[in-house]
Design brief:
Layout lengths: L1 E7 L3 H11 L4 E7 L2 E6 L4 E6 L9 H9 L3 E11 L6 E5 L29 H14 L7 E4 L12 E8 L1 H4 L2 H14 L16 H6 L1 E6 L6 H9 L3 E6 L26 H15 L4 E6 L6 H13 L12
Helix pairs in contact: 1-5, 3-5
Length: 324
C-alpha cells in the first residue's frame, strides 16, 4: 500500500513542488510508468510519479500506476498550480469531484463526471493547518493567501485524493519559497522525515474514530471562508466542501408551500449533498460526519430544507464549537 504523489510535467507549480521534495533526499529511482519517472522513498511507503501530461482529464491514474508497479495505491495527492482571476499569491488545497453539475453522468469541462465525487483524502484538514504553519515559517504571510477550496474538477479515481496548489498566476507558480513550504508539509505530513505522518485516518483506534468530528461544508463561495474558519479554530477532520453554486435549488411556486414538510425544491442540490455525504462516510469509516452551514449564504427557506434533508441523511448540523 503506497501513497502516490503525482507531478504533472507541463505544470510549472507542480514541477517546482516535485523538485523541492526530491531535493530533500531519500528517494530511490524505480521503473518508469507510462514513460514517467518514478521514485520510492526509503523511509515511507510513498512514491512520486512524474507524469508526462496534464492530469485533469486523465482518469484512473491510481489504477494505472498500480498496473505498472504492482503496488496498491492507498491515496493520491496531486502537486498542482492554482489559477484565480484575482492573481493574488496563494497556497490552497482541495478534494475533487463535480457535485451539482448537470446533466448527471456527462464528462465535465475540467475533468470528472458531472454529479460524481472522488473519495476525499482524510489528510485534507490536518494538511491545511500544516500548510499555514509552513507558510509562516517561510515568511509567505501576509503576501500569500492561505485557503481551502470547495470540491471541484477531475480526474476520476478510486482512492482518497486531494490537490495541493500554488497560485494564483504565472508570476507565482514558479515561487521556490512556496514550493519549499509545500515540501515541508509533505515531508512532515507523510513521515518522510522519520516521523509518524499527519492526517492518516487509518492510524486511529476505533474509539478515536468514533469521537472524531468530520466536517462537510455546505454553502458559501468557492474559497469557503466560514468552513475554513472551522478548520483553523478546531482540530476536526474534513470531507467534501460544497459551494453554493453546487446547490441549485428552485423554490416551489405554491404560496402555501412549507419548507418543513412540503415537497422538496427541484434542482441538483439534494443529489449534490447526498453524494458528498456518502463519499465522506466511505473515506472516514466510523467517524462522526457532521455538516457546517454557511448560514448567511442561504435564504431562510433554503436553510430549512437543507437541514431537513441532512436530517433524513442522519447528518447533524453544527456550529464551530461543535467541531472542537
Amino acid at each position: 500500500m503506497v501513497t502516490l504523489l503525482i507531478v504533472s510535467a507541463p505544470d510549472i507549480a507542480s514541477v517546482i513542488q516535485g523538485n523541492a521534495l526530491l531535493a530533500r533526499g531519500g528517494w530511490m529511482p524505480c521503473k518508469p510508468i507510462e514513460d514517467g519517472d518514478v521514485w520510492q522513498h526509503e523511509r515511507a511507503d510513498v512514491c512520486l510519479w512524474w507524469f508526462g501530461d496534464r492530469v485533469l482529464m486523465e482518469d484512473h491514474l491510481d489504477q494505472r500506476f498500480s498496473n505498472g508497479s504492482n503496488r496498491v495505491v492507498e491515496e493520491v495527492i496531486f502537486l498542482s498550480r492554482h489559477y484565480a482571476a484575482s492573481a493574488r499569491p496563494s497556497l490552497t488545497l482541495h478534494v475533487i469531484g463535480v457535485p451539482g453539475e448537470t446533466p448527471l453522468g456527462e464528462i465535465a469541462e475540467f475533468g470528472g463526471v458531472k454529479g460524481e465525487v472522488v473519495l476525499p483524502n482524510p489528510r485534507f484538514a490536518a494538511w491545511y493547518r500544516l500548510m499555514c504553519e509552513a507558510a509562516e515559517h517561510h515568511q509567505l504571510i501576509p503576501e500569500f493567501e492561505l485557503t481551502i477550496e470547495t470540491t471541484h474538477h477531475g480526474p476520476c479515481l478510486g482512492v482518497p485524493t486531494m490537490f495541493i496548489e500554488i497560485g494564483s498566476s504565472e508570476s507565482h507558480w514558479g515561487r521556490t519559497d512556496a514550493a519549499d513550504a509545500w515540501a515541508d508539509v509533505m515531508e512532515k505530513g507523510l513521515g518522510l522525515n522519520g516521523g509518524e505522518g499527519i492526517g492518516n485516518w487509518d492510524t486511529l483506534s476505533l474509539e478515536q474514530r468514533k469521537n472524531a468530528k468530520v466536517m462537510i461544508g455546505v454553502g458559501g463561495g468557492h474559497y469557503a471562508p466560514r468552513h475554513t474558519d472551522v478548520l483553523r479554530k478546531t482540530n476536526c477532520w474534513a470531507g467534501h466542501q460544497l459551494a453554493g453554486y453546487a446547490l441549485e435549488m428552485h423554490k416551489p411556486e405554491d404560496e402555501s408551500w412549507n419548507p418543513d414538510d412540503g415537497e422538496y425544491p427541484a434542482g441538483a442540490w439534494q443529489h449534490s449533498i447526498r453524494v458528498c455525504v456518502e463519499s465522506t462516510r466511505l473515506a472516514f469509516p466510523d467517524g462522526q460526519v457532521m455538516a457546517h452551514l454557511d448560514r448567511k449564504s442561504f435564504k431562510g427557506w433554503q436553510r430549512r430544507v437543507i437541514k431537513r434533508w441532512l436530517n433524513e441523511l442522519n447528518v447533524p448540523v453544527g456550529r464551530t464549537v461543535d467541531f472542537e
